[in-house]
Structures are given as structure tokens and as C-alpha cells.
Specification:
Layout (H helix, E strand, L loop, with lengths): L6 H35 L7 E4 L2 E8 L3 E5 L5 E5 L8 E3 L6 E9 L5 H17 L9 E7 L4 E9 L4 H22 L18
Helix pairs in contact: 2-3
Length: about 200
């Protein structure tokens, strides 16, 4: 008023300017809070294999604004830290055991005693291999499908990373294939039998 300036207009202008700055800084502040939350809660560390919404890969960097994830097809995805405040983070790198579940499908002409021997042999393989969990696993004749007799294999690997998991899985499956050959059981594949009736007239 002393300078003869329109006080009401100046105050209104400062208010609008402050609001604009606050709106512009909102995402930045949210990202900073997100990074602080990550540091405090430690949902993952550098190198962990994580799933965050539809993003999956290994964490390679954590900054004030974003977290960088290297996908398995080698692209680099930047996830704003503000998204991590509400996102569900699945940290696969922190697993003690890695589950493996599959059906081993045998042909329908497999006799019961060979199915029993096959299941027993797989249990022995799990009990003797290096990376398999010994206290929890299931191997049972589980179902009769359209084209096969199904043996359920449900087990866990205790391994440090995915590479060792693949090696352990390969070792297990090769031992099962060898067992099947030794016992004399064959693995089934989808088949259909077609009966054609001929008209004698």
C-alpha cells in the first residue's frame, strides 16, 4: 500500500504461484518419500529378483526418484519410487526354497507294480540329490487323464540363484528319465483312437 501497488492482486498471484509450484513438486516429493520408505523397510536389495506389478527382473539401482530394474530380456525399466508406496512387491530373490511342480505322464499299459516302483525311485532321487529339500516333497500316482496315467512330482530346491536352480532341475529330470528307462516305463503323449466301421452292404 505504501508503494501504491495492488496488494490483493499480489497476494492472489503469490497464492497461485505457490499452488503451481506445489503441484509441480508433488511427484518429486512422493518419489523422495518412496525412496525413504524403501531404505527403511528394505523390501528388496540390489541384485534381488523382484516382481512389481507387471515388471519383473533384477534390481540394479535405487535413486531418490526411481528404482531401476534389469529385465530378463535385458531392457532397463525405471519405476518411480512413488509407485512403490502402494505397489505389491514380490521379492523372489529372498526365497529359501524354490518350488517345482509337474506331472509325469505314463502310458496306460504301465502295470501297477511299475508305477509303484517309479514313484519310489523318484522319492529316492529327491532324498539323495544335493539341492533338493528333503523334508517336504510329494510323489504320487495322482490322476488318470485321457491319454496318460499321471504321477505328481512336487518338490523344492534350495539354491542361491536361478542358474543353480536350472542345473538342479536338469539333474533331477535326467535322473528320472534314466529311472524310467531302467524300470521299463514309457512317457505318454496325447493320442486318440479312431474306430471305423465299414458297411458290408
Amino acid at each position: 500500500e505504501i508503494l501504491g501497488l495492488p496488494l490483493a492482486s499480489l497476494v492472489a498471484g503469490l497464492g497461485i504461484g505457490g499452488l503451481a509450484i506445489a503441484m509441480a513438486a508433488k511427484d518429486t516429493i512422493a518419489n523422495i518419500f518412496g525412496s525413504v520408505t524403501i531404505v527403511a523397510d528394505r523390501p528388496f536389495n540390489i541384485g534381488d529378483w523382484v516382481k512389481i506389478n507387471n515388471v519383473e527382473g533384477s534390481v540394479v539401482g535405487l535413486g531418490f526418484r526411481s528404482t531401476r530394474i534389469r529385465t530378463f530380456y535385458d531392457s532397463l525399466i525405471t519405476v518411480p519410487n512413488s509407485n512403490l508406496l502402494t505397489a505389491v512387491v514380490d521379492n523372489l530373490g529372498q526365497r529359501t526354497y524354490r518350488r517345482y511342480k509337474t506331472l509325469l505322464q505314463l502310458t496306460y499299459d504301465t502295470p501297477p507294480e511299475k508305477i509303484t516302483a517309479f514313484c519310489k525311485g523318484i522319492r529316492h532321487i529327491i532324498d539323495t540329490q544335493e539341492f533338493t529339500r528333503k523334508d517336504v516333497y510329494h510323489v504320487y500316482f495322482n490322476n488318470m487323464s485321457d491319454s496318460s496315467l499321471d504321477v505328481l512330482l512336487y518338490c523344492f530346491f534350495k539354491v542361491p540363484d536361478w542358474k543353480v536352480e536350472l542345473q538342479a532341475r536338469e539333474e533331477l529330470l535326467l535322473a528320472i528319465v534314466t529311472l524310467a528307462a531302467d524300470i521299463g516305463v514309457e512317457f505318454a503323449f496325447p493320442t486318440r483312437t479312431l474306430h471305423i466301421e465299414s458297411d458290408s452292404n
